[in-house]
Structure formats: structure tokens, C-alpha cells
Predict the structure.
Amino acid sequence: MSMNYQDRIPNNVDLGSNRTLQRALEHWQPEFLNWWQELGPKDFQVADVYLRTATSVDAKGWATYGFVRMPEYRWGIFLADRNLERRIGFGDSYGQEVWQQIPGEYRATLRRLIVTQGDTEPASVEQQRMLGHTAPSLYDLRNLFQVNVEEGRHLWAMVYLLHAYFGRDGREEAEELLERHSGDANKPRILGTFNEPISDWLSFFMFTYFTDRDGKFQLKSLAESSFDPLARTCSFMLTEEAHHMFVGDTGINRVVRRALEVMKELNTDDPVAIRHAGAIDLPTVQRYLNFWFSSSLDLFGSESSSNAASYFANGLKGRPDEGRYEDHLAADQMYVLEVPDGNGGTKTEQIPMRNAMNDVTRSSYVRDCEIGVTRWNRLIEKAGHSFRLSLPSTRFRRNIGTWAGVPTDTTGKPITQEEFDARIGSWLPSESDRAYIMSLMHGVHEPAKMAAWIAPPDRGINNNPVDYEYVKMH
Ligand SMILES: [Fe+2]
Ligand SMILES: [Fe+2]
């Protein structure tokens, strides 16, 4: 169905044909806008921003670009087209028709899954709300705002499902999505990583690379769901999500490139000298990477999970790219886990495959994370340096799952608590690292200018030059 931009709420779900639902969402809309004004990007609400807006769900040419003031962005409800042939792709009901309505017995579970996903979307906008002031260029400022408005749209995507399929409970959940706030002591966001402040741009790039990528894998799992409207919503969200990870990937790439330029100019890899020249040394990049990667791993949940097993059995949440697996029942396969043996060593344990679905998804995520690391390392190698960035072990600094609270080094080797305490400062950003990164954070808001700690991007947005005036202040 084509997108209707005539309605107050743009949509491709024929919202106008369901007056009750339309009215309920039109009632939620001003509350969303209030939230955006209060906790969305601070101080740039009257700037004209070169943004893309979804105008079709067709994979080729789905977006239109133009200058928009953020509060006037047309947040809407867009689902990928319905595939009438679609069948349940995994679990005990494999091969049966997908659901257009929610079976009563799965109502509470699906609501929880949708609320948990929905909660992350506005959370990240809140986490990033101060970053506009310290953007390294107008190009970056525009990308930040693009990510922000689209996370706002992802909230709409989940709120639509809550309103359309969960009645009064759903409407209440939609209200609460605007009441919890990132880092709020009384009403925090549901997941830990989404309560971490993002106060500098290195963290922002790490977040969009590692944490938005968690989002990608959660959405991929939900895009397999037997509940067809959820699957279709998540499929379309993935189209937008790709840009968020691009921002992270190219952002880290540009930080590395700038460090390499300075290393070449000064003919040294001494972090002190590199910092003296206003760039970010590679060991610091590694420490930020360690922090955000390990924090994002927890978002996948426990390695062994009976919830994950029942989501899979019941067809609620599958594996990313389920079509690539041969056995969609995974009923009698086993999965091997390396777990701590309680004596400072490790042992192997076999668990039913269905219980291991969180770890299956996490492993695909880790492989996807590797791709960027390999690309960044290629730059370093080409520049003739032996330093390499790397992902720490999935056991390192975990707070959830088998390895929660178990002290290991970054390679995953169990160590004593004393050794961990002594070395953690060299593995994660220290106070002085953070202070140094913050000292670089000064907004560069003139076209054709770029902060000294980051290289310019290879190309601009939508075939425009890099020095295009992507944000027009007033
Ligand atoms: Fe999102
Ligand atoms: Fe995102």
C-alpha cells in the first residue's frame, strides 16, 4: 500500500479506515511532540536540517531528501508490504499461516518484546540530546539528527503495534514509553546500555556501530516473527537502521584515519604526541571499543535462556536470517557453551539449541562487528603500523549471562579479581581518557570546516559535496 502523507499521521496502513485507532494515535501524537521538544536534540529545533524522509517502502528509492525543521519531520507508520504467501518460518508451528492477530496465549509475551524494543528507540535520542553542540562538522550534525528522527519513527512503529493490537494495555504501554527516561534514577529505560550517557562523539560513533547493530540483530530476529505486522514493521525499520551503523562505521574509520595522518606527520605512534597534536590515539579508540562492545553484548541476554527457547518454540522471535538454517525446528540439536568452572578455569557444557538462541544471535552479531574492525585495521596496516584494533572476548566484562561478574582479561582468560581490578583501567576509558576526549568536543558549525580530531568523510549525503550546508542555523 502506498504512503499516505495527507493524514495527520503519515502511514501506509490505511489508518483512515479505523477511526478509533486513528483518534487514539492522534491523541498520542502531541505527547510524542512534547517529549521530542523536552528530551530530543537540545537547541536545534528551529534549524533547517537536510533530512531524508521515508516516502515508499520499496527497497530502491524509498526516501526523499530535503530541508526540514526537526519538529516538522513527518513521523509515520510504515510497514513493509504484506506477503500473502508468508508462512511461519521456525518453531513448533513451522509451515502454518502467519498471524494477522495475536493469539491470546502470546499476548503478554509479545507485548513485552515490543515494549522492550520500543523503549530503546527514544532512549537513544535522550542519550544523544546534547551532542549537537559539539558536532565536528555540519555533515556530522546532520547525521546525528537523521539518526535521532529515525529513532523517533521507530518509536512510532512500536507504538502503532501497541495501539492497534493490544487495546487498553497497549495504550498504557505507549504512554509509559514517554515516561521512562534514559538514566532517570526513578524511571530508567529498561536495558542497561540505554542508560549510559553519550556525552562525546567517539562514544556516539561506538554506540551507532555497536549498539545500533544490536538493534539490527534484534530487528532481524523480530522480522522472522509469526506475528506478521511485527515482522513487517521490523523489516522496514532495518532499511533505516543501516544508515545508523554507517554513521558509526565511517565515524570510527575517520577517527582512525586522522590518527594515522598525525602519526605520519610526526613520525611517531606515541599517544602523548598524538594527543598533543589534537588527534585521538589508537589505544584510546581501543578502550572505547572495549567499553561499548562489551556493554552491547549484554543486550542479547543470557547464553542459556528458557525464555529464548519458548520464543523460538512459539514462533515469536526467531534467529536472524532464519532462511539460512536448514533445520527450522531446532528441536533436538545441542549447542556447546564454554562456561566458567568456578575454579578460575573453563569447562564445556551442552545445552538444547533452543535455549541457546540468544547466543546464536550474539555470535552472528560478533561476526558482523568484525567486518568494520577488519576494515579499520586495513587502514592501519597500509599506513605501516603494527597496532591492531580488536574485539575483546565475549566473556570480558559481562554483567549478564554465564560470564557475568567473572573476571577475565580481554582475551577471555579467567584471572583473579585482584588482577582484574589492577588492569581494568588499561582496558576501559580512564577518567583522563574521558577528560581528553571531552576537551576535543567543540562544535564546528560552519560549512567546509571539520574538527581536527577527525578526517572528513569520503563523500557527502545524497550526492551532495562534503562541505554542503547540511544544517542551516537561524
Ligand atoms: Fe531504531
Ligand atoms: Fe538506530
About this structure: The longest strand covers residues 48-54. Residues 151, 212, 215, 241, 244 surround fe (ii) ion (ligand 2) (CB under 6 Å). The first helix runs from residue 19 to 39. The chain has a mean pLDDT of 96.
